[in-house]
Amino acid sequence: MNSPASHVDPFDLVIFGGTGDLAMRKLLPALLHRYVDGQIPEGTRVIGVAREQLDDDGYRAHAREALGERPQLDAFLKLLHYRPLDARKDDGWQAFAEMLDAEPGHVRVFYLSTSPELFEDICNRLGSHGLNRGQSRVVLEKPIGHDLASASHINDAVGRVFDESQIFRIDHYLGKETVQNLLVLRFGNALFEPLWNAGHIDHVQITVAETLGVGRRGAYYDRSGALRDMVQNHMLQLLCMVAMEPPASLSPDAVRDEKLKVLHALKPIDGRNAMQLTVRGQYRAGVVDGQKVPGYQEDLGGKPSDTETFVALKAEIGNWRWAGVPFYLRTGKRLAQRVSEIVVAFKSVPHSIFDATVPLAQNRLVLRLQPDEGVKLWLTIKHPGPGGLRLRHVPLDMSFAEAFGVQQPDAYERLLLDVVRGNPTLFMRRDEVEAAWRWADPILAAWAASGEAPRPYAAGSWGPTAAVALIERDGRTWNEDSE
Ligand code: NAP
User: Fold this and answer.
1) Other Cβ atoms within 10 Å of 180 Cβ, number
2) Across the strands, what pairs with 57?
3) The Glucose-6-phosphate dehydrogenase C-terminal domain covers which part of the protein (predicted)?
4) What does the domain layout of the chain look like in residue ranges?
């Protein structure tokens, strides 16, 4: 992991889908921030590609509207260019190749911010027009397939043109400051690692809760659902970061080898146990943030659907370190609060010498990914002052962003620059993506075979009551410390 301000030479970044939502809402703002920070040198070219007939000025006008008034915007917009191309047709590709060849020394990044159905066509054309030359890299956005077979198909197609070392499968959760802080907390301190095992950790919770519904992404989402959209990628990646063994170094393959071992060690959830270990839900109308909102099927325009907008599940990792430690995962749309966090709950002390009527709370390490990224360690302390030994459970704030006076960069800022530098540590390797699907596919198959519809939950709640029961059956509760 490099410092966000380390130097890069001028580069070419081609964004396929350059007029799309992701490009306008995430990629261009991230690049602008890095530019303002002085990290993107003059001479860099950011080239938007889509079918819409625009010229450079037209694209810059689109970008200006999306970015709003910002410092140094005019200078940044000069880096932007545009080429109208259809991924499925050859017209214009030769001229596009000549445009890139004008800067033979530039690192070339091809960012595929389009539907994955186009990945194969785009890569084939990049190959047949000789665009994979010099230092080229390709970035793949999620979703990489909708099951193991389709993911392998995409990986084969991309792999026919690009070497695995050139392929950057992005999972923006891995670019979050807190996730990297987890690595440093675990492996840069002597304090945690001796406790980081089944002997001392009671359980782990990973929550990715959204208050938003499916919005305009309904058609896409309805073919996907929460397990494919969130669990198979982001949440399993987070689980891997918590559970992996210490890698020998931060080299890309050392880290990814360790994550892969965790994925391989996940105990299967399939037709035999899926109904006990998983809960699927779908939101109905309700109230979120004081606003009445419609249900999922109304969001789809009245279309009946069995797609889950909520999943809770209990995973286990079958290895020495984690035997018997449940990892509870839950994610959903239209939930009570927007929060993504990892909670590592330590075992209680074996015996309390204090007032036996007051149970001692568990120590919990809470890594908050959004909103308000940060890390808190919940400790029991003595309430200061006189009045006897009154115990209090308080958070020790370990985020330090304010103390260091830094603004936390958006995950895309770091990841885009990592691609330019050619550092794939925080990107998923092919075998990781496929191992994650290998674990997720039997869950999807078990749900399909059961014929059961997802359980309804009111928008603005924490999901179906069965999700509460899933963890409470084990004598535990979902984390509620919102401090
Ligand atoms: P989007 O708004 O629908 O944009 C799609 C882009 O692809 C547009 O620029 C579109 O422009 C272009 N395009 C479509 N067909 C094309 C073709 N045949 N040749 C060349 N360009 C074509 O989609 P998005 O929301 O930006 O998402 C892009 C990808 O990122 C998807 O895979 C999505 O799942 C993933 N993703 C998105 C988000 C997000 O927040 N939006 C988050 C994570 C992942 P034209 O129609 O003019 O060609």
Assistant:
1) 17
2) none
3) 183-479
4) 11-141, 174-411+429-472
